[in-house]
Fold these 2 entries.
Entry 1:
Amino acid sequence: AQSVAQPEDQVNVAEGNPLTVKCTYSVSGNPYLFWYVQYPNRGLQFLLKYITGDNLVKGSYGFEAEFNKSQTSFHLKKPSALVSDSALYFCAVRASSLNQAGTALIFGKGTTLSVSS
Amino acid sequence: DTEVTQTPKHLVMGMTNKKSLKCEQHMGHRAMYWYKQKAKKPPELMFVYSYEKLSINESVPSRFSPECPNSSLLNLHLHALQPEDSALYLCASSQDHDSSYNEQFFGPGTRLTVL
């Protein structure tokens, strides 16, 4: 069975400091991993994804994520946080194996990022 | 056009009303999704349409009835809802459903309140 864990309900950082939002996953076979951001009263916006290849993935708004197969992690990072980055962040996973194709996108519970000025 | 649109933005309905939520995309995507989201929780998948056919129904009560009139449109018909059905209803689309690497594009949602 697929699952995603986001161990922190909330992450607080000061503006200008680096930020990390953690995500670990469990899936049979190779994973496809996604990060989405949700601002208040809005839908989810796609930030980035890992399919294959380079373990460091760069995405929208200066965010990046590092895929670590041995630690089954896909942490979201940004070198310098902005107040406008404050939002709810979701990590998600789907299995890439053929017999699980067509299965649902599994979301983590979400992490609220709060960036203070 | 890389946008998924949803109407209405807000909907208040009584438990005996019948209403519909609408979703539209013009990205040529062949998979469309309905999700239900409670405050500060992850989206919960309700239905998946793949090539205009219902592909997944996540054991959703029959008071929710999806419809996909064509590849660009997705409706969710509501009847005899309960107050606990109050939530943000999100529509999403992706290039197709079977290719697991395709990201989903989400609409802004319809905020539903059932009185």
Entry 2:
Amino acid sequence: QVQLVQSGAEVKKPGTSVKASCKASGYTFTSYNIHWVRQAPGQGLEWVGIISPSNGATLYAPKFQGRVTVTSDTSTNSVYMELGSLRSDDTAFYYCAREFPGSIYFDSWGQGTLVTVSS
Amino acid sequence: EIVLTQSPGTLSLSPGERATLSCRASQNVNSHNLVWYQQKPGQTPRVLIHATSSRATGIPDRFSGSGSGTDFTLTISRLEPEDFAVYYCHQFGGSSHTFGQGTKLETK
């Protein structure tokens, strides 16, 4: 079955960076785009960016442009999201999610990586 | 970037009642690119409706979606106890995805 397994929780200081991982299994990795979506505790969903593992093409939300980098590794079926210049309001669960082909919706989600930014 | 505004913020209804949730966009949205999710506490979102009005696999027919342009609606015809949750609309346009801020459907 399709699984997206994310890396564990992180605690970071303001101004530093964090790199979360998302390991995919149960499907052909290069056939599905992967998105990153974040959700601050008790708040709504916020789109961060997308990568196409087949060619490495990326697209980022304007808010995160210049501060986020999403990469993929086809040898390990993994996607990575690195967010830099962390601030306290970056504290959130970061989810990877698989995009259903031919549509825009997310049909499978990772369990989330909690990133806490605190001095 | 297209901004999605959901209303109401909170909707208080009883099981058996009809729920109507609104999602208004700041610019026209391609109907193919409008999605609704349900999220329960401690869970990741679950897709309910894609392409404005197509039910996702396994979603009961009491859930329906409609709309076009800038105005979209999710309707739950008769609320079941398991339907009380937060609902989000989601769109892709102008090279960016955005979500609405959510509508919390709570038991009256």
